[in-house]
Amino acid sequence: MKDVNIVFCTDKNYAKYLPPLIESILRNTTFKCNFYVVYSTINDEDKKKIIKTVTDFKDSTVDFVKFENIELLENNEISKYASSFRGGYDAFSRLFLTELLLSKNIKNCIYFDIDVVVKKNSDELFSLVKNIKFLAGVVDSVTIKNGGKWVYDKYINSGVLLMNLENLKSINFAEKCLDFIIEHGKETSLLDQDCINFVLGNKYIELIDQKYNEYLPKTQKVKDAVVLHFTGPFKPWMKETRWRLKKVFWVKYNFANNLRMKGIILNNSVISVLFNIVAALRPLMNIFVR
């Protein structure tokens, strides 16, 4: 069986949203998934739910990795330089995956933001991971259109990243990211994303199809997507988020996972029927559900 290393970075505020994401991944692949949850803080209850979700599926594993680089960031007083600093360092943890995971003999991985959901078979995406030379992602056409100091033609969205940790380590990726934050942190509002794009640039970044990180809400693009990404301030778990088709896909896997926690396992066919019902009711939900 083929396997893939999948990484999330979180804290106790967002770990609760990991089970539906993991549910969506495991229901849409034939790969053995090795999950790594990089965290600064996490509640025991959320940890138990994550473990149950993973272990309910045959062969997949989960490991919790403490983000140990906070002291390094504090010593460098990163909060002084980071315009997007909001009292926590977790947004920067993906920049240090070379330091955190290579010691566990994890040479390559795919990183997912927590505000994504996998809605189609992802085997093709996971097959790409071991062939990436340094790092790959999807072009961020919205940010490119809006422009900015760090934007260029291969500027990528950092919500889904395919990473060759060995090769990134060989070019001192983490150290260069730290240097960028100190030197340019106050000049950017997309700090970790700008950092990745600046440090790697055209030389090291590869592009993958947008369907693997679809952040646009247009219906056809949502239907064609393998991975949906809820960029912006409105996340799928928020009541105030409009009931677009994107949200329904997240609700589908959240519902399935909530039932799993109660010992009720629904097969994909039943979930699809429920999904179609909710999708049909979207216009009413946008009126009455707030």
This entry's quaternary arrangement is single chain
Uncertain stretches: none
Could you give the distance between the termini? 44 Å
Could you tell me the strand content as a percent range?
15-25%
The major sheet is characterized as: 7 strands, mixed
Give Rg in angstroms: 19 Å
User: Main sheet: which strands, in order across?
Assistant: 3-2-1-4-7-6-8
Number of helices: 14
Overall morphology: globular
Structural class: alpha/beta
Strand count: 9
Q: Helicity range of the residues?
A: 40-55%
pLDDT average, as an integer? 89
SSE string, helix = H, strand = E?
EHEHEHHHEEHEHEHHHEHEHHH
Task: Please describe what this structure looks like.
The structure is a single chain. The strands form two sheets. Strands 3-2-1-4-7-6-8 form a seven-stranded mixed beta sheet. With 290 residues, the protein is of the alpha/beta class. Strand 2, helix 2 and strand 3 form a beta-alpha-beta unit. The chain is globular.
